[in-house]
What we know:
Blueprint: H1 2-20, H2 23-38, H3 41-70, H4 79-102, H5 107-127, H6 134-140, H7 143-150, H8 152-158, H9 160-170, H10 176-199
Amino acid sequence: xxxLVKKDYKDFFAEWISLVANAPLVxxxxxxxxNYVLLDGSDFIxxxxxxxxxxxxxxxxxxxxxxxxxxxxxxxxxxxxRIYPLLTVILSYIIGTIVLYVLKAPAIVTVLMFCYLFNTVxxxxxxxxxxxxxxxxxxxxxxxxxxxxxxxxxxIFVLVIPMVMWSRFYLKRHTFNQVLVGALLGFSLTxxxxxxxxxxxx
Length: 202
């Protein structure tokens, strides 16, 4: 009996983590927090709306429409189900990056949007032959940007990554290698991009 209760609790906890760690959902507080620290008043509100729209709202709308139209599971378990949503989400990130750059958003905000774009392109390419974890990349990718802005406090966000890895593996949505590579690739790609663009002014 205790074993069943413990399993039910773990199932609920894993499902809950998986739900809140959805990449577009994670992007909302990340962009809002970064804009809050770097901007004041109307600029904070304006750039938060713009960045959240292109990083979270539009990608979510696209994915929901696709899921409803094709009648697939929310997690899109088949690699083929991911291709069209990823392509359209990439388009959203392209427009978002251009808009933020033209409107002179804080550099790290524009760069982070570009990281979402570049990282998603990599996910799309990998997706043709392997189902890397988008959930894990969705939390590991923004982590370097939070560290860049918040320093030590940004490192705390890194603690979320193992929880999401466990959730996706426990729910059998991915293999251990798929969640591990998702974590390493998301973190390293964003770190490299921030270093090359912001520190070397390329």
